[in-house]
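[DERIVE STRUCTURE TOKENS]
===
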Amino acid sequence: MSQQFDPLVIRAMARWPDVPAVFGWLRLDPRGNWLLIDRGQPGFNEQAHGAGSPITNPAIIDFIGRNYADDSQGRWFWQNGPQRVFVRLDRAPWVIRVIGNGPGVRLVTHTGLAFKGVRRAAFGPAGEILLNADQGCGVVHDLDACCLQLDDAGDSETPVLVLGAARLPVQRCTDPEREFGFVTQPAFA
């Protein structure tokens, strides 16, 4: 994916080129919420507190969304000035909202980008709907899955997702990371 970062971020990257990346601090949940995993807090316990605290400030959410990208290894990150903050993904790199229905349906990512060029649809391991498009893989928000049109293709085992003029067979996907090329729990390379 080609990403244009904020000018402020680009200047910070040029000024401080060797800032180490961080892992295990930021999480994207299946509903498109960013969560900060509060590792530095006194009494932090991974099992009890590992889910994280929601980031609710709209300016910070927008900043993360504008500077969200992936690397050549399929790891997704937020470019926070000169530092890459790698993201733990609960389902997929994008959470897709469905706007409208029928022939005029639109798909929008949790960051507000149009999700275009869908070329594959699949049911993930938890029954979620995964879509692969120009931006990569996205999971359809659970509250919006019912807004998608699924038709019978004459084969009760393989429904067809109807997106405008496109008709995509919906296969089963047992390993989304491998099949769609992304990393849910990035680690130091």
Remarks:
- The two ends are 20 Å apart (CA to CA).
- The mean pLDDT is 90.
- The chain has two domains: 7-89, 94-174.
